Amino acid sequence: MDRHVLIVFPHPDDEAFGVSGSIMKYIQEGISVTYVCLTLGEMGRNMGKPPFATRESLPEIRKKELEEACRITGIKDLRRMGLRDKTVEFEDPEELAKRIRAVIDEITPEVIITFYPGYSVHPDHNACGAAVIKAVESMAKDQRPEVHCLAFSHDCYEKLGQPDIKRDVSEFADRKLEVIKAHRSQTQGLVQGIKKRLSKENQEFMNQLKTERFWIYKFQN
Amino acid sequence: MQPIKQSEVQQALDSFANQEVYLHLETTNGAYASHFNEGFFSAGAYIRNAKVTYTRGTITGDNPYRIGLKMPIGWIYAEGLTDWEIDDKGRLLIAGHDHEGKLAVALELSKEPF
Predict the structure, then answer these.
(1) What is the pTM of this model?
(2) With an 8 Å Cβ cutoff, are B101 and A49 in contact?
(3) What's the pLDDT score for residue B37?
(4) What is this model's ipTM?
(5) Residues of B in contact with A86 (CB under 8 A)
(6) A130-159 pLDDT tens trace
(7) How far apart are CA A99 and CA A104, in angstroms?
(8) How far is A56 from chain B (nearest CA, A)?
(9) How far apart are CA A76 and CA A181, in angstroms?
(10) Which domain holds residue B59?
(11) Number of domains in chain B
(12) What are the structural domains of chain A?
């Protein structure tokens, strides 16, 4: 049987730092990856360094950057949900969960990766994670895929404990850096910063890239 | 975008005056401001596709600039503006970029909805 993993994030580039190594690893193992990206990151503050995007040209630029990032990562099934950046939490949660459920029913993933609701800083991240959890909760318990969550709020270790999964993706570190660079409008400043910093800090950044951490969501009902 | 030239932006503001136009107005310090700096009070607002008419639009200041649009019964205001362009759809895009080049404020006018 075909094996599938589903990724659900609200913004192009949300996949780059914390998950793209895992995605490459899944794909290398022959697992198909579908990436559902809810918005085009229309309201991002980063416009490139120096700025080359405007508020109005940013969506189209980020769309192309996302397509390039997917090409590098090896994702062949990219789907956009047509929501608007910074508004995910204001959408009808039931309807969003239904749309995500439809994708789950179609591709029957064994794992879904998303943000941990409440521990992911950006309101869109938390609302996206909550919609995924709601979608999975609507399934029979023995049919549910595992949900692997990213979290990076200051209190995530204190409240959630150590991550359940620490995946070594060092073999993909160089390609992962290429994925980060592909989101040029958003990461140009960061990448320049890395080059400028001392090599020791560079090393630390690369070490961070080499391990990806996930908490497995524990369903209450 | 290019750095604001006051006289050119003034001309553009004049060309959108006294007619129904669509407004995008935004300030933002980013969704991560309070995450990276816990003492920081994050605030921002945006409105997209507000249909407005202004009778007098003025740009003042000395980089960064301020703009005030006087409406029959109200005002539209933005400060911290640094760059501008007329895009390929004829829309007037004005933005303020901070010292790192990140967008902090945007004021945009269009004769068609954004």
Answers:
(1) 0.92
(2) yes
(3) 80
(4) 0.87
(5) 31, 46
(6) 999 999 999 999 999 999 999 999 999 999
(7) 9
(8) 8
(9) 19
(10) 2-110
(11) 1
(12) 4-216 (3.40.50.10320)
